[in-house]
Amino acid sequence: MTGIYLAGALSLAAFVFLNRSRIVNYVLVIAFLVLQVGFTVHIYTHFNQTELHYFTADGLGILLLVTLTIISIPAVYHSYVYLGSKQDNPKHTAIYFGSVIILLMALSAAYLSNHIAVTWIFVELTTLSASALIYHRRNNRSLEGTWKYVFVCAISITLVFIGILFLSFSLPQAGTEDLSFRHLINKGHALNIFWLRLAFIFIFTGFTAKFGLVPMYTAGIDAKDKAPSPAGALLSSVLMNVGFVGIFRFYTVAANTPIHAWANHVMLIAAILSIFVATVYMSRVKNIKRMFAYSSIEHAGIIILGLVAGGVGYYAAVLHIILHSFVKSSLFFQQGQIYRIYKSKSIYDVGHYFKYNQAGAIVMLLAFFFSSAMPPSGLFISEFMIFRALFEADYLWLLVVVMILLTIIIWAFGKNVFKLLFTPAVEFKEDAIEKINPAESLSQYIFLGLVVYLGLNPPQQFVSLIQDAIQNLAH
Amino acid sequence: MTNVLLLMFTISLLYLGIAHRLLTYIKILAVQGILLFGIAFIELIQINAVNLALILLETIVFKTIAIPLFLQYVMKRNRITRDAEPFLPNFISLIIITLIIITTFILSNTIADSRISKIFFVVALSTLFTGLYIIVTRHKIITHVMGYLIIENGVFILSLAVGNEMPVLVNLGILLDIFASVFLLGIFVNRIGDELKDVDVDQLKSLKD
Fold this sequence. Notes:
The complex is a heterodimer.
Chain A: H1 2-18, H2 22-45, E1 50-51, E2 55-56, H3 59-86, H4 90-112, H5 116-134, H6 140-170, H7 181-186, H8 193-211, H9 218-226, H10 229-236, H11 238-255, H12 260-282, H13 288-309, H14 312-342, H15 353-356, H16 358-371, H17 378-392, H18 396-422, H19 442-456, H20 460-469
Antiparallel strand pairs in A: 1-2
Helix pairs in contact in A: 1-2, 1-4, 2-3, 2-4, 3-4, 3-10, 3-14, 3-20, 4-5, 5-6, 5-11, 6-8, 6-9, 8-11, 9-10, 9-13, 10-11, 10-14, 12-13, 12-18, 13-14, 13-17, 13-18, 14-16, 14-17, 14-19, 16-18, 16-19, 17-19
Chain B: H1 2-18, H2 22-43, H3 49-77, H4 90-108, H5 118-137, H6 141-161, H7 167-195
Helix pairs in contact in B: 1-2, 1-4, 1-5, 2-3, 2-6, 3-7, 4-5, 5-6, 6-7
């Protein structure tokens, strides 16, 4: 089935690229979504089975694949709304949807891959397709964003490759070995420490470009800002998750070797710096989309803190990344509607959103509360567990610092969101505004509802999948 | 013989530090391609013939001929001026690149692993850092691409160190090479030249907070 899926998605993408007719485009994209859903169901029902030698349906892969499929359907819908509002020409539409299909295909394959080199290949493919999405508007600034994204991602993908080379040096005897994660975990204690450390540094740094952590987070910010908002939603949720997959799977390997404590320190530094950077920029950024992007950096930092803390933190980190995907994508979907009303992303030009789009304004308000981890948001549960894990792991001083930084972030985020919702906009002409259909906010409500449901009352299936994902980490 | 070629490769890095013109950079990249061809040929002679042919073809056709020609074409098409415009004087660049080589040399002495030959490690790592140094200290966007290509060469050398045992990794490196350089240069030839007339990093400053 995996083979059928990859071949089917690639050929559908090729047809979408070549096709210029609007109706055929709808049909092809819907065909891809059907394929994606079918594939997800297939993977879900074939738990822990390996296909094509390199793709295993393990807990983490299934969870993220289901998340991806759930997010991809509204993303396609909002993309059609976005492209319709801009009257794009058929060629640009074709490139856009072709890239979306390739991106989703590469992400699904990267989630499921059980071999570090295969993960690497598909992550490389996501750079290619994501940059076509970022460049969609074809103006100077989107060109700049694309160039930076491509360059930083090219460097970081090279770093990951160097890491893989060092990893191959660390194997005890050369020749027959393969670099699958399972094999590396089993061989954990036989790996050479020196090379393993170098490998960890390089692979971790390389994947931070996708996950959005210090040091390589910068390109992602520009990318999420310049990409159309439905694509931005994909970039800041499912594409972020692929970085997490890379880091998490390799961290699982490192956790079964003597370098575990050392790796924790490296990740701790990156996590704290990420939250700090997010705090600094959140409190002065004036562009709504960039603000959301920095909020993703903050959450990435919290997730890594969960891994560092260990214990219940492992569970919470996986829970957090899934819930964050839903919250962040609904924020980005909603941002597309805000832009259509105000024709601006600057916080200075917006205001009184309740008056122009009530359904959307409630989404913004709820999504703000949810993403700043206030109850009943599921993120409250996961963040609380991460803090508890930090407390139990004797990181008290760290916890205090993180709490202070998070408070500043909530203040900065809230200041801007309340300005958007309640303060009247200066010099805003009301007569020409577009009427937004409240039904466009439906997907956001569903996502936010899902966040509450999965956080407060997780189904048994969901819990056992997370437990499967973290089974190789010592509790 | 491999050692001689690797040393020549290191010397080409020093030359890179004092080169003034972009054309010289392009020539150095071509020479590095030939050197990599030699190293790959000697090192990997035992692996399967088809795979070896692929690797050799990539070094000679892609690294030595296609990319330098393509870079030249980009320069002509976008009317890029011939000077490399470093932020630092060439003398300091030379010293810094020398320091990079010495540091990696000292670092490599701490490795206690008989399986990996240290000279590969030294040359690969110093190439890597020289590439990063070139990216950081040159003014034009096209020199960034060249710096990236130098990094790629370093990665290629590193992958040759395990090439006999895992030829797959060398192939992956080639994949990276072709994908990334075609893609970077592709954007370059299509758009950046048309939209940003004087191709300069200072023009990439509108996205910020």
